[in-house]
Structure formats: structure tokens, C-alpha cells
């Protein structure tokens, strides 16, 4: 089959590889009908996440048709149409039973590496480094889904791939980011990043009843898409984020701040941009925490910082004293996808939201490698890429 594979920093290729096989009775093989490139894939493409190996198959946002099931993949049969959550879940461990699916205790087959790096294991993830199990991803014609009886979302035929594909990642990610802000009708919610995750977060914050949603980015078409959902926008290259947020909240600061940017944030004006780039380049720091610093500074005391943006390792120069003394609450994590998807699927079916609005590019798998660059560089108006294997 054909699959997009990682061959090192900035080197993704569409290769011929052997078809996946059932390896365990709980497995299923899915023929991928649609998959997407996620902002998290860019951290691998740009070489900032440790734990990738040459030849790893990329991709963790995908859906398709079940073509083969193991004897214990209960509730699934050939012909079923499924979206596959990016978090692999056993459905049985204590964390899964509590709905904390992204920290499933059993699905990371490289538990020891995660234990060493993070203190505990986290869930196995598709196409996302050997720290999370080294599972081949779904930017491919076929994919093996481990623990398939628990790791799937069945979707009705009446909805298109484009409407439901993002249930596997960015839609529940934006939703969780907003839900964990505990949004009140009097709240200003400020969202850094108007990429695909930011866009889903904006719509979620609006659905959850925020008084005003303010979005920060510098890419004009992304800000335009944010305004289409009713958000107020700030272009951080042209205006002061802190001053504008101050003005928009009567000097109080936003009650809720969401980092939908993560470890590759840009800073245009401040000295910390140079400092972080230099430290990241020599691996003295893995992540650039510019957005975190801004959020801590501007958030209203007793507010909430919600962090869907991905960080991989160490950050530096975080004004923790400000955060502590202002009494801020931090909430973060990889998304507990299945905790949210029954509700979100219903909202799509009811017509409350159609997540396909975010798609700007639909291409074949062969064009995947060049699309990584287009998406990373925000060329050609690119906001979200869907690949059709
Ligand atoms: P993206 O790279 O397309 O979007 C990031 C956006 O942030 C870009 O539009 C960029 O211009 C903007 N940006 C950069 N620096 C900024 C700054 N200082 N202030 C404001 N905006 C800034 O990626 P995406 O797909 O939207 O993903 C966003 C983040 O969410 C990534 O870190 C990704 O890894 C993460 N993510 C997390 C989960 C999860 O489970 N928690 C799931 C999916 C994605
Ligand atoms: Zn993702
Ligand atoms: Zn589990």
C-alpha cells in the first residue's frame, strides 16, 4: 500500500510499504477513505518532538471502512464506517473508566520510555513517536487499529467524510479546550491561534455561551475565518495583544485564556523570541512558551488557562510567581476524544455545526509531502488539508 512516512526533519515521503495485518484478536484493519494533516504533525515534520524513527508512518486524524476484524474486536464488522480517535484506548483500565482516555494505562506499548520521560505512561497514539507506542498512523491506504472494539466512533452513512472526519481529533480538541474553561455568560474567552484547532475552539466557545470571543493570530485568512464565527480578532504582528485585550475587557483582562498554538509559537516584538529560538536550536529548551507567558500576564486573576496546544518537553522563563499570586487555574492535555464524541456527533447530525468549514485543500495521498510544507508555511490560503488515499 501507499503511506506517508517520516524520513527525518522536513522529509516526508509517499512510499510503498507492506499492508498492515491483524496482530491481535482485538485489532481491526481500516481502509482509509479520508485523513488530515494536523498541527501536531508539524511538530514531527519540524523535528521538535523526540522519539521518531526513520520510516514511521504519519497520521492520527483519519476515518474509513472496516475491512477485517480480529475475533475479539466486539461490536465491529467488515463494512462498518468509522472515525478513529487519535488516542488508542483499552476501555477497561481505571483511567478509561473515568473517561480520561488520553492517559489510558494500557495502550502505550513503550510504557517504560514514557514512564521515564513523564513519570507515568500516557495512551498509545497513532503516528506520534515511539514515546506513545510507535503505532503506524493513518496517512495511508490501510491502517491497523489496535484495541479496535474500544478505539472507534461509528458514523451514520447520511453524513459526509468531511463532516465527521475531525471527530477523531481537532473538533473534540477545540471542544475540550472550551469546556475546561467552565465558560460563564459573563466571560471573555481569549484564544491564541486561529489554526484548525483555534477555529474549532472559537465555535465551541460560542456554542457554550461566552460573552465575547477574542482571537489572536497573524494570518489574515485565518483571522477572517474567526470573524465569520463572530469572534473579535487581534493581529499580533500589527497591534499589541496585551493592550487590545485590556481595552476589550474594560481593563480587567479575559477571564479565560486558551493556548491553541503550542510549542512553535512566534513572537515578533519581544526579546524572548530570540532567546527561545536559540535555546530550542541547541535543545536546551524543547518548546517556545511565548503564548503561555502572554496568557499568564493578561489573564484576569482567578481565571483559567486552558492549553490544548502541544508541548513536548522543557520550557523556560515562565512567570510562575504571577500565575500563583493571581490564583490562575491551569488545565491541559491531549484530548480525551471519546469522552466528547457522542455529543459532538449528535450536534453535527442536528446541524448545530458542520466542521467541514475549515477545509481549504483536498488532495491525493501522493501530494501529501508537498502539502506538509503548504500547511506549515500557510501558503495558498491553506488552513486544513484533507488527503484522499
Ligand atoms: P497550526 O500550526 O495550523 O495553528 C497554529 C496557529 O498559531 C497558526 O495559525 C499560527 O499563525 C498561530 N500562532 C503562532 N504564534 C502565535 C502567537 N504568538 N500568538 C497567536 N497565534 C500564534 O496548528 P493547529 O492544527 O491549529 O494546532 C494548534 C496546536 O494544537 C498545535 O500545538 C497542535 O499540536 C495542538 N493540538 C493538540 C491536540 C490535543 O489533543 N491537545 C490535538 C490537536 C492539535
Ligand atoms: Zn492532532
Ligand atoms: Zn485504558
Automatic annotation (TrEMBL):
Q: Which residues form the Alcohol dehydrogenase-like C-terminal domain?
A: 196-281
> Which InterPro entries does the annotation name?
ADH-like_C, ADH-like_N, ADH_Zn_CS, GroES-like_sf, NAD(P)-bd_dom_sf
Recite the UniProt keywords alphabetically: Metal-binding, Oxidoreductase, Zinc
List the Gene3D superfamilies. Medium-chain alcohol dehydrogenases, catalytic domain, NAD(P)-binding Rossmann-like Domain
Please give one Gene Ontology molecular function term for this protein: zinc ion binding
Q: Which residues cross the membrane?
A: none
CDD domains recorded: FDH_like_1
Is Kinase one of the keywords? no
Which coenzymes or cofactors are required? Zn(2+)
* Span of the signal peptide: none
Q: Where is the Alcohol dehydrogenase-like N-terminal domain?
A: 25-156
| Highest taxon, organism lineage | Bacteria
Pfam families in the record, alphabetically? ADH_N (PF08240), ADH_zinc_N (PF00107)
The family assignment reads: Belongs to the zinc-containing alcohol dehydrogenase family.
Q: What is this protein called?
A: Glutathione-dependent formaldehyde dehydrogenase
Please name the source species.
Bordetella flabilis
